[in-house]
Amino acid sequence: NTKGLILCFGEMLIDFVPTVSGVSLAEAPAFLKAPGGAPANVAIAVSRLGGKVAFIGKLGDDEFGHMLAGILKKNGVSDDGLTFDQSARTALAFVTLRADGEREFMFYRNPSADMLLTPNELNLNLIRSAKVFHYGSISLIVEPSRSAHLKAMEEAKKAGALLSYDPNLRLPLWPSEKEAREKIFSIWDKADVIKISDNELEFLTKTNTIDDATALSLWHPNLKLLLVTLGDHGCRYYTKKFKGSVDAFKVNAVDTTGAGDSFVGALLGKIVDDLSVIEDEPRLKEALKFANACGAITTTKKGAIPALPTEAEALELI
Ligand code: ADP
């Protein structure tokens, strides 16, 4: 694979999802294992579309950790940046969409292995060889993974990588809303590309308006591309020179988990070997159309990883 390397940094975990829909966690009769974690989903999205990708993170040296490592490998994601913690366990989440429409979460993270990745454990050669470095925010919450996160970003940037950031706000994980905003903004101006969802736009700007002025209030001088995904309304894009939207594809959505990660992976695959796509509006729109198609397909099947498309599937929808 002669493509440029995309590196995804962050957590991989297992979501336990009730076998029946519309129940609270306490009412669930049993759970299904759904491997995920946003940066890991993005890595597999890139690989399934034919890109070259590695994942950097830490798993527990336990049954779940080895299962997740096996999923990365089976999906063609390099494990050169993967480490195992000998004492802490792999992160687990229990997630349900209750009948009242509210999501309920419970996490095993006290602390989980991903939070214990240290700066010394980073594979610096791998980081320095990346053309694109993509990251999420959960590792930012606590030490030592916060320091590892900051060092990895810095090394990638020094070596000339494009930095791509998706805050992936899972609010129940954060000690407070204030801390979530502060830590997200603490690395905001390091990113070259930022992708947020409409909900994250509202949260970060403390508004309930989704418009250009609100989106552009988040602009920073070094940013090259800001993307706001709008579910079945597609996405908006903003660069220094132009802005606009790309419509979504009409599909029969059954589970939107992983749609944003699929979108990001698809876009990064389209720009890694030619960053000038970002500055050329017709080509950027083509790339975003492809990303929208990948996001749409991901909503048509349950779970995130099993629902990530191949290039042929995306082209067929287009
Ligand atoms: P996130 O998963 O980060 O919340 P979105 O739900 O906005 O992000 O989804 C990302 C992209 O996936 C959207 O921009 C859109 O292209 C596609 N998508 C998501 N939901 C749907 C849907 N119901 N129908 C068609 N496309 C969708």
Automatic annotation (TrEMBL):
<keyword id="KW-0547">Nucleotide-binding</keyword>
<keyword id="KW-0808">Transferase</keyword>
<comment type="similarity">
    <text>Belongs to the carbohydrate kinase PfkB family.</text>
</comment>
<keyword id="KW-0119">Carbohydrate metabolism</keyword>
<protein>
    <recommendedName>
        <fullName>fructokinase</fullName>
        <ecNumber>2.7.1.4</ecNumber>
    </recommendedName>
</protein>
<dbReference type="InterPro" id="IPR029056">
    <property type="entry name" value="Ribokinase-like"/>
</dbReference>
<keyword id="KW-0418">Kinase</keyword>
<dbReference type="GO" id="GO:0005524">
    <property type="term" value="F:ATP binding"/>
</dbReference>
<dbReference type="InterPro" id="IPR011611">
    <property type="entry name" value="PfkB_dom"/>
</dbReference>
<dbReference type="Pfam" id="PF00294">
    <property type="entry name" value="PfkB"/>
</dbReference>
<comment type="function">
    <text>May play an important role in maintaining the flux of carbon towards starch formation.</text>
</comment>
<keyword id="KW-0067">ATP-binding</keyword>
<comment type="pathway">
    <text>Glycan biosynthesis; starch biosynthesis.</text>
</comment>
<dbReference type="GO" id="GO:0006000">
    <property type="term" value="P:fructose metabolic process"/>
</dbReference>
<dbReference type="InterPro" id="IPR050306">
    <property type="entry name" value="PfkB_Carbo_kinase"/>
</dbReference>
<dbReference type="InterPro" id="IPR002139">
    <property type="entry name" value="Ribo/fructo_kinase"/>
</dbReference>
<dbReference type="InterPro" id="IPR002173">
    <property type="entry name" value="Carboh/pur_kinase_PfkB_CS"/>
</dbReference>
<feature type="domain" description="Carbohydrate kinase PfkB">
    <location>
        <begin position="5"/>
        <end position="310"/>
    </location>
</feature>
<dbReference type="GO" id="GO:0005829">
    <property type="term" value="C:cytosol"/>
</dbReference>
<dbReference type="GO" id="GO:0008865">
    <property type="term" value="F:fructokinase activity"/>
</dbReference>
